[in-house]
Design a protein that fits this description.
Blueprint: H1 2-8, E1 13-15, E2 19-23, E3 27-29, E4 33-34, H2 36-49, E5 58-63, E6 66-69, H3 73-81, E7 86-94, H4 100-109, E8 133-134, H5 136-143, E9 145-148, E10 156-157, E11 163-166, H6 173-184, H7 198-211, E12 217-218, H8 226-233, E13 236-240, E14 250-254, E15 263-266, E16 270-272, H9 274-279, H10 282-288, E17 289-292, E18 295-298, E19 307-309, E20 314-317, E21 322-325, E22 336-338
Parallel strand pairs: 3-6, 4-8, 5-7, 9-11, 19-22
Antiparallel strand pairs: 1-2, 2-7, 5-6, 9-10, 11-12, 13-14, 15-21, 16-18, 17-18, 20-21
Helix pairs in contact: 2-3, 5-6, 6-7
Length: 345
């Protein structure tokens, strides 16, 4: 009986949490752009799984003119490409009492909409999802990321990522990345596939480092994702440093608060034989190896990129094999040891 009712009615209130079944024509986008390749990818995934009907609700807000989708645009468009017109949505906020002008100002302020064209012009999004503009740089932003859930358990995406995404930490971050690339004249082509040329990736990395997008977790050089997972799970991040005593100009920054006396970094030291030491590059030998009591140790990340400072906030504890906070440390601070620290003895 329920299936019959759903097929006859355009809008069905399914539960007290304002979950609705809408015809896709009743849903407006909160953005001006999408990625055609991303829609194709999601469509093929749904076909492969045999799930061509919308079973999971997409978030919308109630607007003075109807319903506006605030996330899941590519999912909605992939259903449309499959011929599925009924979309399950859930209302997360109600702005229907505002004028249309105030509505768009408010949802943008709350990070629920991104009304900007490829040229950077602010423009009210169209009423219909099918009127969005294809943005290939948006797809590149997606495939160049390593994506983690908020608890950092497991990850998917690029093995040598350009940037790191944790949950939905920055609204519409892919578009902000796309904007920086468009502004620099760098344009991804779908013909590059999911593994773009390294030269293109490195040019994009340089653009994003210069762009300084607030909150963007850029991977400052080519690293396999496993090299920085340890840092993330310790509440740390490796990025460009203003101290930058190393040639790569990197440093270690906190992503969470540390109290005085806390272990800020637990070391992962690798004991080296003479042959293993000689097999390393001169740069690694001179910067990331230390000899203690006749044993040569190779420092891993993140501890190898802790810079020295006249205003340190951690000190090395050689017994505990860790960097210990010598004062309270706030999120975003760079970790640094005293400038006169002796690490070889």
């Amino acid at each position: 009986m329920k299936k019959i009712l759903l097929s006859l009615m355009t809008v069905i209130l399914l539960n007290a949490e304002q979950t609705l079944l809408l015809d896709i024509s009743q849903i407006s986008p909160a953005q001006l752009r999408f990625s055609l390749q991303n829609v194709e990818m999601k469509k093929n995934k749904k076909l492969k799984s045999g799930s061509t009907t919308c079973s999971e609700s997409l978030p919308v807000v109630k607007a003075p003119f109807g319903y506006v989708l605030i996330d899941g645009h590519h999912d909605a468009l992939s259903y449309l490409a499959l011929g599925t017109r009924q979309i399950l949505v859930r209302i997360v906020q109600d702005f229907s009492d505002l004028s249309e002008e105030l509505f768009w100002s408010e949802v943008e302020k709350q990070g629920l909409a991104y009304p900007y064209t490829i040229q950077g012009e602010r423009k009210i999004p169209p009423r219909n999802l099918s009127e969005l503009t294809d943005d290939p740089n948006r797809y590149f932003a997606a495939i160049s990321a390593r994506k983690y859930p908020p608890d950092l358990k497991g990850s998917t995406g690029a093995h040598y990522p350009l940037w790191i995404k944790i949950g939905k930490d920055i609204p519409f971050i892919e578009f902000r990345i796309s904007d920086a690339l468009w502004e620099s004249g760098l344009v991804y082509s779908y013909e590059m596939g999911d593994n773009p040329p390294e030269e293109f990736i490195e040019r994009a990395r340089g653009v994003l480092i210069q762009a300084q997008i607030p909150g963007l977790k850029i991977v400052p050089k080519k690293y396999h994702y496993k090299m920085f997972e340890k840092s993330l799970r310790q509440g740390l991040e490796i990025r460009t440093s203003k101290i930058g005593q190393f040639a790569d100009r990197l440093g270690v920054f906190s992503r969470k608060s540390f109290k005085k006396g806390d272990v800020a970094i637990k070391w992962n030291l690798i004991e080296l034989s003479r042959e293993q030491l000689q097999s390393l590059s001169k740069y690694e030998r001179e910067n990331f190896c230390h000899t203690r009591n006749g044993v040569t140790l190779l420092y891993s990340d993140p501890e190898r990129h802790v810079n020295r400072s006249k205003n340190p906030n951690v000190i090395p504890d050689f017994e505990r094999k860790a960097n210990i906070a010598i004062r309270d440390i706030s999120p975003g601070e760079e970790l640094a040891i005293p400038i006169d620290t002796v690490e070889d003895f």
